[in-house]
Amino acid sequence: MEQAMLDTHQKALAINLDGAKYGTIAEIGAGQETARWFFQVGGAAGTIAKAMSAYDMKFSDSIYGSCQRYVSRDRLQAMLDHEYKLLNERLGESRGATSAFFAFANTVAARSFSQQEDGHGWLGIRFQTRPGEEASQIDLHVQLKGQENIQDQETLGLLGVNLIYAALYLHHDPDALLVSLLDGLSTDLLAIDMIDFYGPAFEQVDNRLMALRLVQLGLSVAAMFQADGKVVQPAEALYKKAVLVERSRFRPPTNLTMNLLDCAYKAFCSESDINAEDVVVLSEMTLHNLAEGEDIDAEDFLHRAEILCALGKNVMVSDYGEFYRLAQYLSGYTHMPVGVALGVPTLEQIFDEKYYENLQGGILESFGRLFRNDLRLYVCPAWDDKTGELTTVHNLNIEQHLRHLYLHLLENGFIRELAAIDQSQLGIFSHTVLEKIRNGEPDWESMVPEKVAEIIHHKHLFKCPG
Question: Whose CA is closest to 250, among 326, 305, 327?
Answer without folding.
Answer: 305
